[in-house]
């Protein structure tokens, strides 16, 4: 009976996967032609020792970021191809713990992949099905 009680107590204290205590949002704005402005906004959900914003290779660090205060990093991106993915993220440090969160935004016209060809296959019972293989 004691073993069952201990198991139930331990099972009731299961922790969720740790997440970064920061919310991020990536926005884009066309500047005309192939130029875009991308902004990463990060809002810590609690006080953190440090907040690091990363956007398209640029970094901005904030020491002792306060909860619910929005920090922004804006970059200009010139497209070389018809489209480009830009990755932004935030890293928070609380004590010796680090947590990350990231997002991605596609600038320009997203690349479309051609649809693979399909073929009709007859199953052993005579049923015909359309099969697509890459």
The total strand number stands at: 9
Helix content: under 10%
Please, how many helices? 1
The strand order across the widest sheet is 4-3-6-7
What is the percentage of strand-forming residues?
over 45%
How would you classify the helix and strand content by structural class?
Answer: mainly beta
Helices and strands, in order, run as HEEEEEEEEE
The residue ranges in which pLDDT falls below 50 over 5 or more consecutive positions are 3-9
The rough form would be described as elongated
Mean pLDDT: 86
Quick summary:
With 134 residues, this protein is mostly beta strands. Helix content is 7%, strand content 59%. A hairpin with a 2-residue loop joins strand 6 (83-94) and strand 7 (97-108).
Describe the structure.
By secondary structure, the chain is mainly beta. The protein is 7% helix and 59% strand. The chain contains one helix and nine strands, in the order H-E-E-E-E-E-E-E-E-E. It has one helix at residues 2-11; strands at residues 22-32, 35-44, 48-55, 58-65, 71-78, 83-94, 97-108, 118-122, 128-132. It has a four-stranded antiparallel β-sheet, with no helix packed on it. A hairpin with a 5-residue loop joins strand 8 and strand 9. The protein is elongated, with a radius of gyration of 24 Å. It starts with a helix and ends with a strand. 13% of the residues are buried.
